[in-house]
Structure formats: C-alpha cells, structure tokens
Amino acid sequence: MALFDLDTLQKKAIEDCLKFAQEHMNGDFVAEPIPVPDDAALTWDPIELRYVADRSMVLWRRYGQFEVVLDADDRVVGYVDHDKWEKCRWEPLTDAEALAIARTSGLLRPGLTLVESRQGEKGSLELRFEGKEPSDGLRVCINPARRAVISILPVEEGAR
C-alpha cells in the first residue's frame, strides 16, 4: 500500500470531484478545495485503522444568462435562469412534486399558499403563490422535463 503526501491527495480529490460532477451533471466545472488547517487535513480513523484525508470542495459551474431580482432594500426576491429553458417540455407534475422543486430555490417563504398551477409558455409549469399581504405573491416557472426552476418573480400588483 502506498502512502501519498497531502498535495497528491488534494489533486486526486479535485480530480475525483470533477469526474463525479461530469458524470452526474451537465456543464464545465471548476473544483476549489475549501482551506482547512494543516492539522485538520488528515485524521486517524480508529475503526478502519487508517488515516483519512477529508477535503470539502466548492464546485463552480459557469452559467449563461442569469438575472437576479432585488427589492427596494436590495434583498433577493427572485431570479431568472435562462439556461433552464433548455429542453423544456410539458410533463405533468403533482403539486407536491412542483412544490419540492420550487423549494430548492430557497426563496419560498413560510406562509405562502399555492393558489394556481397551470401549463405555461414553451411547455413550462407556472405556479402562483399568495401570502397574507398582496405584495407577498410569487410566480414560479418550472421546466418539468428537467425538474428545474426557471424563474421566481414577485407577482406584480393587479396581476392576480
């Protein structure tokens, strides 16, 4: 059994991370190790009786056109990911499936209620959420074939 130095292990970890990303996702990726103190880079595993090199990575992927929507206080309230229109086609989704996909955005606030679910443009699924205040409404557009959020936008006043 060969022992590797930490630099060799880190290079192998980056290669393995990029290989995994290419096998499971589309796009060009860059893996960047998250810095850790030297003494935390290698730990002894008393069960497996060996040293374990544990590296956390940040995986970056270049996006095409991506718009972020801010409110008057410069808080993120929505976005449009134009790349998610790729291969968009209609597939029926249950409300539970659509809600799970919409929640991946991190922008669905507690207290929002799904009030409308319908087929949208180019085969997308459009969801409309309402909250306690009229300004709380959100419109979510999902690519059902990719099960990905295309956009989340605030509902404009009078657009209900």
From TrEMBL:
<protein>
    <submittedName>
        <fullName>Uncharacterized protein</fullName>
    </submittedName>
</protein>
